[in-house]
Amino acid sequence: MAPIERITLFKIPNEADRARVLEQYKVLAKTATKSASFSYDGKPYIVAAAVGSSIPDPRNKGYNLSVKTTFASMDDMKYYDNECEAHKALKACVGPVNEDVLTTFYENIL
């Protein structure tokens, strides 16, 4: 099974808000595990993550924070979306300050 690559772009107008979201991603990278309460092993399940402020360019169309996350499987990505406590905390941080979000994911064929 090929890894699942997920790209998420945010439009967060306020620079201080973007900085808080970036810090929350650092927390997520350290704390995202599959909870033992869900019969998982409590180990990290995100294969790789990269996040940063987008370099200004007209092609960004206003999206100013970029994230790439790699998961070993679609099931792991679904866990991230629906059950991960670290991701829930991130969404709580992003929700009030985010103007728009764009997410896409794909199976890496390389």
From TrEMBL:
Identify this protein by name.
Answer: Stress-response A/B barrel domain-containing protein
Superkingdom classification of source: Eukaryota
Question: Which Pfam family is an annotated match for this chain, by its short name?
Answer: Dabb
The Stress-response A/B barrel domain extends over 4-106
